[in-house]
Amino acid sequence: MAIASTNPATGETVKTFEPLTDEQIEEKIQRAADTFRQWRRTGFEERKEKMLRAAEILEDEAEELGRIATLEMGKTYASAVAEVQKCARGCRFYAENAERFLADERIEDLQQDGATAYVRYEPLGPTLEIMPWNFPYWQVFRHAAPGLMAGNVALLKHASNVPQVALAIEDVFLRAGFPEGAFQTLLIGSDKVKAIIEDERIRAATLTGSEPAGRMVAAQAGENIKPTVLELGGSDPFIVMPSADFEKAVETAVASRTLNNGQSCVNAKRIIVHEEIADEFTRRLVEKMEALKVGDPMDEATEIGPLSTPDGVEEVADQVRRSVEAGAKLLTGGERPEGPGNFYPPTVLAEIPEDAPARYEEIFGPVASVYRVSSVDEAIELANDSPFGLSSSVWTADEGERERFVEEIEAGMVYVNKMTESTPEVPFGGAKNSGYGRELSRFGIQEFTNAKMVWVQDA
């Protein structure tokens, strides 16, 4: 079955690709293994030079690369260009900091009696990247850049609806001077992943995607005693207390929930508002959601583009419908527009009962769920009443409330008076069913290294 690049704004199939054969997959895995034996011996300066060149290419060609992402998965053109530029920033960050992050760490308590003890970080080998379509460049580069700087090589199994992006990323690394086997794209279906993970030449795997996919990859890797990093779904709480900057909180709630057309794991999916301000907050939220312009993602005036696939928009519509049938109140949106494309309107749900899909499922589209609470205790209880624990955003000027949220919210990240952000300088990852391990910062580059303990005693 061909891998297709389909424009989600029109439904038009732009280009098709034949999946790799088993023989071609074998060739690429062997090339990765051969390249790793040489690449791991390169110095940080050589790796840095190539990574900085990759950053330059991304910056110089951000508009064309962004256009490909918009064409394939529907994000607005402005956000696609910004995503490519962010990848350049990530490349520069690891080019400049990898050597420091991976420097030998002396164990000072053991530097005595003729002993020297330290930890050395060494690359593991070829890693399999299983990446999603929603941030088709950034999700890849935030693993590939640290991995390559650490001395690993990578094989990318990208989402099947963004093949042109996947090939473009490989091309960037090749033109930056990386060896042919350092980063390779595999145009394959999900049915080929298990055999690749089982291959003894593949030493680790990372996946960003759904919880079911994460469970399968973790099980397959675990059976073969290989480390994994999983960044899975989220149903992030966005908590607003009476002391918050009201207007900024409303604006950020809308921006967060509609980021990437609502297709982000760390969107403000559950907006939890104290009852003192809930009525006015909800009114303003609905007002701002209704004012958003939905349309052609290439039009610079568009704020919400189409969802990535027909199946995606059908799932969102079904989740909203079932939530309303369960008793949730539809405040705006909820009706798919006529015409071509995978469009879904900005939607707000309120008074959501416990058995509604909006309560526990991740809705991957521009749908905000609003909840009223009467106290900090109730806000924390509701925030934690989810199988997910990726990130959270809390809005309060009260220091005591702030400390309680930081201490008690069950999530990999807590942002106070700020929208959750994925940026090279800080670690990114979740808790509970949102996965494990960390990407970005020094944690991200150390994840796929062997922390080798070395103890040298004088003869």
From TrEMBL:
Domain Aldehyde dehydrogenase span(s) in chain numbering: 3-454
InterPro entries given in the database record: Ald_DH/histidinol_DH (IPR016161), Ald_DH_C (IPR016163), Ald_DH_N (IPR016162), Aldehyde_DH_dom (IPR015590), ALDH_GabD1-like (IPR044148), GABD/Sad-like (IPR047110)
Keywords noted in UniProt: Coiled coil, NADP, Oxidoreductase
Gene Ontology terms, MF aspect: aldehyde dehydrogenase [NAD(P)+] activity; succinate-semialdehyde dehydrogenase (NAD+) activity
Any single Pfam family the record assigns to this protein: Aldedh
Coiled-coil positions: 41-68
Family: Belongs to the aldehyde dehydrogenase family.
Protein's name in the database: NAD-dependent aldehyde dehydrogenase
Species of provenance: Rubrobacter radiotolerans
